[in-house]
Amino acid sequence: MALLKAWPKSSLNLLVFAVMLSESPEPVNLEPLPRWILMGQNFSLRCQVWGGKPRQNLTMALFRGPQELSRQAVSEQGPGKAAEVTFTATASREDHGVNFSCRAELDLRARGLGLYQKSSAPMELHTFALGTPRLIVPKHLEVGKKETVSCEIDKLFPVENAQIHLSLGGRSLSPTVVRGQDMLRATAIVIIAEGEKEGQRELTCNVTLADHDREVQENLTVYKSRRDPVPIVMGVLLALGLAAMAGAIATLCLWQNLRKGSYQPQTLPLQDRTPMETPETGPKGPSPVASA
């Protein structure tokens, strides 16, 4: 009170008048941000503030963490309306997981008062990048034979938030997933069971990130192996050729032995020979001359 009495009456009246005309800026609101924003895409941050009078002394600033990005003066609004400013920014990799906020500042220092500041609650921004997946698969699948299929995608951020799925003919596969620097790969072993029909099967790769997805498909041909008759014919011809060769070798050896005179056909001794019976002669008996 003593300080107020020491002031000149005119200055005191001006101070009271300035206080009566001023109003601190509160509350300050930052409109909710999209859950995810694609890297390189522009987005808007809209700040609103109630109060903050006189408006010609009110400014709004946008902050990325502790860094001030932009500052704007607030235009005059109708009575009872919130003051509003809009900032435009471009989403980047560095913005992922960073808090954004806006701050209202009412500067009354020229009127002998102070600088009044009020900030909004921070909003966390999430940015992402999502490329196009590609399939690495054979064109044909043989029934009963193991084959490897894989799907890769790069230009992916953040990799840890991405999910990848593989399916063949509408049935989900159980791939092995490898995560790298901005890259994701899924590899699976497929076997077409015996008895399944031949024809086309659709292989699908789906990658999901940040409420977005990318999908690619490719048709594979399932077939059953037919036994090739050529190896069978060749086997038969080979067997026949070996038999003919063995016969030729045996004949050649016999002919050489005959030329050298070393070949002796086996004969029975005379005493071991017995006359053969023939129907015309009958059995041999004693001679008629001997009986006389």
Automatic annotation (TrEMBL):
The keyword Mitochondrion does not apply. This is Intercellular adhesion molecule 3 isoform X3. It comes from Phascolarctos cinereus. The gene is ICAM3. Residues 266-292 are annotated as: Disordered. The keyword Transmembrane applies. Residues 133-223 form the Intercellular adhesion molecule 1/3/5 D2 domain. GO terms for molecular function: integrin binding. The chain crosses the membrane at residues 232-255. It is found in: Membrane.
